[in-house]
Amino acid sequence: MAENNYTFPHTIFTEYDKAHNVGVFTETTNHIYTEQTEYQRIDIYETPAFGKLFSLDGVIMTRDSDEFVYHEMISHVPLFIHPNPKKVLIIGGGDGGTVREVLKHDSVEKVVLCELDKKVVEAALKYLPNISYELKNPKVELVYEDGSKFVSQFKYEFDVILIDSTDPTEGEGGLLFTEKFYQNCFEALNENGVFSAQTEEPFLKKEWMVRAYRRISNTFNIARLYMGYVPQYMPGTWTWTFASKNLDPIKDFDPEKVKEFNKELKYYDEEVHVASFSLPVFVKKLISEFSK
Amino acid sequence: MAENNYTFPHTIFTEYDKAHNVGVFTETTNHIYTEQTEYQRIDIYETPAFGKLFSLDGVIMTRDSDEFVYHEMISHVPLFIHPNPKKVLIIGGGDGGTVREVLKHDSVEKVVLCELDKKVVEAALKYLPNISYELKNPKVELVYEDGSKFVSQFKYEFDVILIDSTDPTEGEGGLLFTEKFYQNCFEALNENGVFSAQTEEPFLKKEWMVRAYRRISNTFNIARLYMGYVPQYMPGTWTWTFASKNLDPIKDFDPEKVKEFNKELKYYDEEVHVASFSLPVFVKKLISEFSK
Predict the structure, then answer these.
(1) Any catalytic annotation for residue A43?
(2) Which of A71, B107, B113, B143 lies 20 to 30 Å from B164 when distance is taken between CA atoms?
(3) What positions does the entry give for spermidine binding (chains A, B) (predicted)?
């Protein structure tokens, strides 16, 4: 028995995509936190490969090792297009990673984070300090309610709105994927307003990607899909849709502003900004085939 | 018991990365082929999510649903840089996907495919017809031997060399990842020669990515890393390194040639060509930090 080199970890986190019968797994060394809240099950694990891993209903939301990709891309692409972003609304994103990136822009005076589940914010503050620390910044106002309802009360209020939501569910995909919701976001933005939403990915979730993109482009004057290398979200690619009332993410982009930026970024720069809008042929086809 | 909705598939393919204790899995409906050859274990499965899935020693090599990304990117990036590619050497790539893409260029008169394991070619021809069909093209010469040895006999012979290898193993990473091998490829290329090799990825395999890139850039006059969205290879991102004696993959790129190309491509176009060389900040750092 001295030859027994069995070292397979005894605790495995598995994310299982029931619709396709595929999944990913990773060793965990500690199940730090678990709670069934009013809305969902929250889990936080310690993992050797990815550091802290945070899941909702068994789906990875963020993890220490590579969360920077998603959080930088949802934030800096729109924020570098707005000439002077002061007031930002984030819907979802209770882990705080998007808030952290937004606050790297010195012009920002106020960030309203509207997260449905207070327990997500509390867990992030306690267990994910590298991601959540800016949630305590005095510029941040935390609101715990349904984002679709919250945004509907504003007209010409925000410079930037970011939709950092969970995946859509059955039917209409949850209130954060409806055309009515996107219309309310449009109305809550001021004249130079810019918007970015996570819009799924083109390999396993192309129907939802196309649907979200189409609804956003039906609502805004300008809408452009962009992509990134996001290993935390199976299958490793993710998209967002930039939208605005009048600003174009390429024509109105000034690479000098990024070169002069005084904060450290790990993924995004002026080259990545432009390249992320260059979509693979099959993705261009997917979003053009579906008529408005 | 009428309520029992248990539908979890009874047969699961798992790719397990022992170094990181992470992995991916997918349902299989048929284990079409399995053989332990002199070199490796070959398996081919039917999967609902990805069509036919081909693995070597338990690692996914290719699959119907998204193989086009890898095969287009390793082929068209260098082939569109060479002014008139006629003679092409592919090392590895016994599934035939790279041959298929190379032969979309009408200028190509001859493709030599040097694959170590004849059983890979035989299995691909029998079970992966959509990927392998061009292996029977009369322009193709099949050679079954060690690619590192094979390439060392040529001087100024090829216009294009593509290294479509498996992952590096321990130590030197296998003969297809040594500086000596890359030197032999350099010598086997003629004056306008271009080269592309798969060079792993920057999240889980950054050491190998950097090592391969550094060795190629030590050898060639021009070397540039490029990236793609490749879900078949965990964690969903992949890199290749373009290299050449004198041609630059951006300055010497003519987008008009791609626009006029008369074959259908699903991933690559003139925009993707340029964008794939725009690397995330952390990837730029990884390849610049390691000194030659």
Answers:
(1) no
(2) B107
(3) 71, 95, 164-167
Domain extent listing, chain A? 12-63, 67-289
pLDDT at A10: 61
Pick the CATH number of B12-60 from 3.90.420.10, 3.40.50.620, 2.30.140.10, 3.40.50.1110: 2.30.140.10
Domain A12-63 has CATH 2.30.140.10: yes
Cα angle vertex B217, ends B234, B140, to 5°?
A: 70
- Tens digits of residue pLDDT in A162-193: 999 999 876 556 788 999 999 999 999 999 99
Domain A67-289 has CATH 3.90.1170.20: no
Closest partner CB to B9 (pick from A21, A204, A281):
A21
pLDDT one-digit tens code per residue, A204-229: 999 999 999 999 999 999 999 999 99
Chain B residues whose CB is inside 8 A of the A68 CB are 282
CB nearest B267 (choices: A26, A267, A281): A281
Which residue of chain A comes nearest to B228, CA vs CA?
A229
What pLDDT shows up at residue A291? Answer: 44
Q: What is the mean pLDDT of residues A8-17?
A: 82
Q: Check B282 against A275: CB less than 8 A apart.
A: no
